[in-house]
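Session log. Operator J.P. requested a structure for one protein chain; no other inputs attached. Running the standard single-chain path with token output.
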Amino acid sequence: MSQQIEINAVLRTDVGKGASRRLRRLADKVPGIIYGGKDNAVLLTMNANELTNVMKDEAFFSQILNVVVDGKGEQAVVRDLQRHPASDKVLHVDFLRVSADKAIQVQVPLRFIGEEDCVGVKMGGGIISHTLTEVEISCLPADLPEYLEVFVAELDLGHTIRLSELALPEGVTIPALIHEERDVTVVSVQIPRGGAEEEEEEAAAALLEEAEGEEGAKTPGDSTDEDAGDKSSDD
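Structure written below.
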């Protein structure tokens, strides 16, 4: 596990949509909140540039963070993050406090291992299709992995890896698998788009060519059963 990420924040007393807009526009700050556990929810303000820098680490979204509020650290995970639809600028962050003895549910990224050696790609000419890039897991904070590895080197053309086939660290479960119908495909190796259509077209062309060859094999002198019947009636 990488070094724990630290977020510095201060208490926010000026509330409301107008106050939040002023923070973002004039002070280059990002409003947020931390809640959960035995303590009350607390409104926060964070430096926008500092937040942007720590968010470059993918562990920011899936690992336990040390949220330092006015000098006091609290263990928390990112529960929600709002962005501007056009600029992608962070507008608000929700942090959820965690306790060492209570399981948490967190989205963690998937890392696909062995794609360059995938059998279905190298031997079958297929392409790798990622249905999921992250998955929600449940575990105690101490068991939280940075990511889950998905090994695809032996995946053949037309084959898939489902949610239930992922290798999970000890103490980690996938809540979705409580329901059998949610055992969805994670990754698959598929025939490239147009590949099946080209095969069908080639097969159809071969049949047409064969039919034309049979028709051309008949000579003008060949007579049909119907012709033979006509000759018999004339005799």
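Operator note: The longest helix spans residues 195-216.
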